[in-house]
Each structure stands twice: as C-alpha cells, then as structure tokens.
Specification:
Blueprint (H helix, E strand, L loop, with lengths): L8 E5 L3 H11 L5 E5 L2 H8 L13 E4 L7 H11 L8 E5 L4 H9 L4 E4 L4 H18 L6
Parallel strand pairs: 1-2, 1-3, 3-4, 4-5
Helix pairs in contact: 1-5, 2-3
C-alpha cells in the first residue's frame, strides 16, 4: 500500500453507538479516517454535501447497517446507488440483518456485499480487518 492509500475515508452508517464504536476500534490499526453517522437523512446530507456538510469529502467506502430505524437502511442504499455521482462508492452492508430476504435485498439494491456482524468482539475485529484488506489492499478503486 502506498502513501496515497493511507488516507482513505470510510463512512460508517450505524445507529447503534456501541456497535459503531467496536467497528471504529477495529479500524484503528489502519491509517484511514472514519466518519460515523447514525441515520440516513444525515448520511444523505453528508454524501450530497448539504447543510453542515458543504465541504464533506467523498468516502472511499461505506459500511452500512441495514437495520436502521424503519426501512431507512434499504432506502439509503437505494438512494445512494441511484445517484450517478455516488453509485461508484462501494457499499459494504455490514449488518445484523441475516435473513434471506435481507441478503437478497442488499444485492437487488446493488450493495457490493452483505456481511453479517458477529456479536463476538474478536470475530467482528477479524471481519472488519478483512473488509479493509480486501477493499484497500486488493481491489482497485476509482479515483474520486
């Protein structure tokens, strides 16, 4: 990994502060910036650079909890993938949603992958590290 890869931005969208903090902790060993947002409306404002986010940078990767209040996670995934300037951003659905319907929905809405979160801290850390290794160590991402 070269120096330009060390400053990647990960947008974490998760309404459960404790889970989000576990994910942030797992990402601390990497040199990426992590911004955590707890709801879909704020995430859309961030991604579209509205309101408090006029100068927001484009994330290189989005980690999305599908089980946001209501159907907000699925709605947010659909909105992001429908916008030409946002659809290139890979979205990893990192979620507690494990049903076949949830998995099908992720791919139907053009999520890049669906990963079920582990409740075990060590296992969650391993999952997050593998996500980081794959998306920033193996995959070639488009330049913003």
């Amino acid at each position: 990994m070269d120096e330009s890869d060390s400053e990647r931005l990960i947008l974490l969208i998760d309404d459960d502060r404790d889970r989000a903090q576990l994910i942030e902790t797992a990402l601390q060993s990497f040199q990426h910036r992590v911004i955590t947002i707890a709801d879909g409306i704020e995430a859309i404002d961030f991604l579209n650079r509205r309101g408090d986010y006029l100068d927001a940078p484009r994330p290189d990767l989005i980690l999305l909890e599908l089980n946001l209040p209501g159907n907000e996670g699925q709605d947010l995934l659909a909105k992001i993938k429908a916008e030409p300037q946002l659809r290139r951003i890979p979205i990893v659905v990192l979620t507690t949603a494990a049903s076949e319907a949830d998995i099908f929905s992720t791919y139907l809405l053009q999520g890049n992958c669906h990963i079920v979160k582990s409740t075990d801290l060590d296992r969650l850390r391993q999952i997050v590290q593998r996500i980081e290794e794959f998306w920033f160590g193996i995959v070639t991402l488009p330049v913003a």
